[in-house]
Design a protein that fits this description.
single chain, alpha/beta, 6-stranded mixed β-sheet, 4-stranded antiparallel β-sheet, ATP hydrolysis activity, amino-acid transport, branched-chain amino acid transmembrane transporter activity
């Protein structure tokens, strides 16, 4: 369980998250939604330890990780696919993937074969530079890099931004498979409703840095969509 209790988050003097409470169950698929600028990325970065928490508490299972650093996250089993992918363009696909092998949790020194089974293109492109890949291939690389760590929780920030439909489908299928077969917890920021409904079993709707509504995806009504998601 990942739990945020009364979390406040600021950039300098500007407060973004306000007394935010949230509990993510192990093995669940949660989609974090809301209009541009409501604090979705800030929430993910807060869970990842990329931003120091101004006040409140963040726990992972029994462990208080409120003030622990981002470097701890891979070791406790949290993988992250940031918005914009952030692969290393000058490194090969293989080098991008092996970067993750340096974490304590991963005792193997080779890239797990299941990464290539999920994303066969990564094997085909193994010796190509990351920067030469298409957007969709880079996104598969970013997800593959997080999976090298065998995480229990996978956090993804808008993985479908600027990606062609067949790769969006592949990503959807991979996320559902990881959750179904390995019980991996999926936490996803997603703006597109069909993808959110297909992957998320729970929704969390943010508005001005607070959870305005959450629950099973079936309870994300047209009224809520109209009020908090439609532009
Ligand atoms: N590094 C930063 N310094 C100052 N303000 C920031 C920083 N990053 C984000 N913000 C501001 O914080 C607010 C929340 O941003 P955030 O990226 O979390 O929103 P979001 O819901 O993910 O939006 P989007 O859908 O556009 O990605 C926005 O007003 C944004 O301008």
């Amino acid at each position: 369980m990942i739990t945020l209790s009364a979390v406040n988050q600021k950039y300098g003097g500007t407060q973004i998250l306000w007394d935010l409470d949230l509990a993510i169950k192990p093995g669940s698929r949660t989609c974090i939604m809301g209009r541009n600028g409501v604090g979705k990325t800030t929430l993910l970065k807060t869970i990842m330890g990329l931003l120091p928490i101004s006040s409140g508490k963040l726990t992972f299972g029994e462990q208080d990780i409120t003030h622990s650093s981002v470097e701890l996250r891979p070791d406790i089993g949290i993988g992250y696919v940031p918005q914009g992918r952030h692969i290393f363009p000058q490194l090969t696909v293989e080098e991008n993937l092996t970067v993750s092998l340096n974490c304590k949790r991963q005792t193997s020194k080779t890239i797990p074969e299941h990464v290539f089974e999920l994303f066969p293109v990564l094997k085909e492109m193994l010796h190509r530079q990351g920067g030469d890949l298409s957007g969709g291939q880079q996104q598969q690389l970013a997800i593959g890099r997080a999976l090298v760590l065998n995480p229990d929780v996978l956090i993804l920030d808008e993985p479908n931004e600027g990606i062609q439909p067949n790769i969006v489908q592949l990503i959807r299928d991979v996320l559902l498979k990881l959750n179904r077969e390995q019980g991996m917890t999926i936490i996803l920021v997603e703006q597109k409703l069909p993808f959110a409904r297909a992957v998320g079993e729970e929704f969390v709707l943010l508005e001005k840095g607070q959870v305005i509504s959450n629950g099973p995806m079936a309870e994300l009504t047209n009224e809520l969509v109209g009020e908090y998601l439609a532009v």
